[in-house]
C-alpha cells in the first residue's frame, strides 16, 4: 500500500467539500443570474448543469480513477475521455443523484456500490457546461457494464500518475480566432484534456498534495 492510498483511506473526507456546490458560485455577480434547475443564464450565455462521478476503485491495494471513452456516436464530445456523468434531469433531487444516475446508465454502477465522499468546485467549460464533480469510492464487488451507445470503453488511471506534476502539460490552441490554453495528461494511448484534465488536476491539488 502506497502513501497515496493511505491519504485516501485516512483523510479523503477531511479534504473535500461536504456541502453540495452551487452552480452560480463560480460567477462573481450573482445578481445577473437567471437560474433554473437545468441551466444558468449569464452574460448572454446559457450554461447547462451537469454532474460527473469521480470514482476511486482500489486495484491491487492501490487506488485508481475510472475514466470512460465516449462513443463516436455521441452528439457532443464524441471519442473524448471523460468521467461517467451527464446533464441534470428534472427528476434528480441533487447533483449527486444526477452523477449516480448518469454513471449507472453509462457503466452500470449502482448506488449501493458507492460511498459518496464529497465534492470539488464547479468546473465551467468553453462548450457552456457547468460540471459538478462528485467524489466516490466504489466497493470491491463493482464490475462495469458498459452501455456501448454512450461509452466505447473504460480504463483506470493510477493516482500516482495524476500526482506526478511532470505528467501535466499546458497546451495552447487557436479556436474561432481566440487563443485558448488547456491542460493535457498523456496516459498510455489516451489523451486526457479539457474539463476532465482540469478536474483531475483539481483533485490532485485538493486531496493528494
Question: Mind explaining what this structure looks like?
Answer:
The protein has a single domain, classed as Nucleoside Triphosphate Pyrophosphohydrolase. Helix content is 22%, strand content 40%. By secondary structure, it is of the alpha+beta class. It contains 4 helices and 13 strands. The mean pLDDT is 92. The strands form 2 sheets. Strands 1, 2, 3, 4, 5, 6, 7, 8, 9 and 10 form a 10-stranded mixed sheet that branches.
Q: Compute the number of helices.
A: 4
Structural class: alpha+beta
Please report the distance between the alpha carbons of the first and last residues: 17 Å
SSE string, helix = H, strand = E? HEEEEEEHEEEEHEEEH
Name given to the CATH homologous superfamily: Nucleoside Triphosphate Pyrophosphohydrolase
Global geometry: globular
Query: What is the C-level CATH assignment?
Result: Alpha Beta
Largest sheet: 10 strands, mixed
Write a brief structural summary:
The protein is α+β, with helices and mostly antiparallel strands and 209 residues long. The chain is built from 4 helices and 13 strands.
Q: Which helices and strands occur, and which strands form pairs?
A:
Blueprint: H1 3-15, E1 34-35, E2 39-42, E3 45-59, E4 62-70, E5 81-82, E6 85-87, H2 95-107, E7 114-119, E8 123-124, E9 129-138, E10 151-158, H3 159-163, E11 168-175, E12 178-187, E13 190-193, H4 194-208
Parallel strand pairs: 3-9
Antiparallel strand pairs: 1-2, 2-3, 3-4, 3-6, 4-5, 4-10, 7-9, 8-9, 11-12, 12-13
Amino acid at each position: 500500500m502506497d502513501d497515496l492510498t493511505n491519504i485516501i483511506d485516512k483523510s479523503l473526507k477531511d479534504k473535500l467539500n461536504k456541502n453540495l456546490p452551487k452552480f452560480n458560485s463560480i460567477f462573481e455577480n450573482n445578481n445577473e443570474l437567471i437560474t433554473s434547475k437545468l441551466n444558468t443564464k449569464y452574460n448572454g450565455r446559457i450554461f447547462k448543469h451537469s454532474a460527473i462521478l469521480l470514482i476511486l476503485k482500489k486495484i491491487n491495494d492501490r487506488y485508481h480513477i475510472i475514466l470512460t471513452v465516449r462513443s463516436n456516436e455521441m452528439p457532443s464530445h464524441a471519442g473524448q475521455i471523460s468521467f461517467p456523468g451527464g446533464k441534470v434531469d428534472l427528476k434528480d433531487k441533487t447533483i449527486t443523484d444526477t452523477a449516480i444516475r448518469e454513471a449507472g446508465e453509462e457503466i452500470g454502477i449502482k448506488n449501493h456500490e458507492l460511498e459518496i465522499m464529497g465534492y470539488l468546485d464547479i468546473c465551467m467549460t468553453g462548450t457552456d457546461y457547468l460540471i459538478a464533480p462528485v467524489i466516490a469510492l466504489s466497493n470491491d464487488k463493482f464490475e462495469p457494464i458498459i452501455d456501448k451507445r454512450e461509452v466505447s470503453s473504460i480504463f483506470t488511471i493510477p493516482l500516482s500518475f495524476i500526482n506526478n506534476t511532470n505528467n501535466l502539460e499546458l497546451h495552447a490552441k487557436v479556436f474561432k480566432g481566440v487563443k485558448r490554453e488547456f491542460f493535457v495528461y498523456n496516459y498510455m494511448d489516451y489523451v486526457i484534456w479539457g474539463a476532465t484534465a482540469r478536474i483531475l488536476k483539481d483533485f490532485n491539488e485538493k486531496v493528494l498534495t
